[in-house]
Specification:
single chain, about 150 residues, mainly alpha
Length: about 150
């Protein structure tokens, strides 16, 4: 019976040794896996730092662009206001021209008889002038013949 006890203790010692060997192998494999995970996490951390820096730069550029767009929008508003003022001025000028045209038209309508008389007098004056020049030319020709 003592032999059986020794054999049992020996079997337990062998089983415990095998168990320790497998646990050691498992722990070694786990150690390798955790080292790999640790290296991967370090790489991811570096990449995340790069992405964070790039995101910060992009956000700064976006803010600068938004500020620039705001300033240009304000400048464009002043240009639009100036164009609107020019349009108002042109409209006022057109109204003035229309008023003057209407006044001239009304004056012409009222003074139509007088204008017709002036035109007739002008025609008569032009005829007299033409006749005068014709007589003068005739007199010059007669003088040239006589001399």
């Amino acid at each position: 019976m003592i032999n059986l006890l020794y054999v049992s203790v020996a079997l337990i010692a062998i089983a415990f040794t095998i168990l320790v060997i497998y646990v050691a192998r498992t722990l070694k494999s786990l150690h390798i896996t955790l080292d790999s995970v640790s290296k991967t996490l370090v790489g991811l951390e570096r990449q995340l730092d790069g992405v964070t820096r790039e995101t910060t730069i992009l956000l700064q550029k976006t803010n600068d662009l938004a500020t620039d767009i705001q300033q240009k929008s304000e400048s464009l508003n002043s240009v639009v206001d100036a164009v609107k003022d020019v349009g108002t001025s042109v409209q006022g000028f057109n109204q003035s021209v229309q008023t003057i045209t209407q006044n001239v038209e009304n004056s012409l309508t009222k003074n139509q008889d007088k204008i017709a008389q002036i035109v007739q007098y002008s025609k008569v004056f032009m005829n007299i002038k033409d006749q005068w020049q014709a007589r003068k030319a005739e007199q010059n020709r007669t003088r040239v013949r006589n001399n």
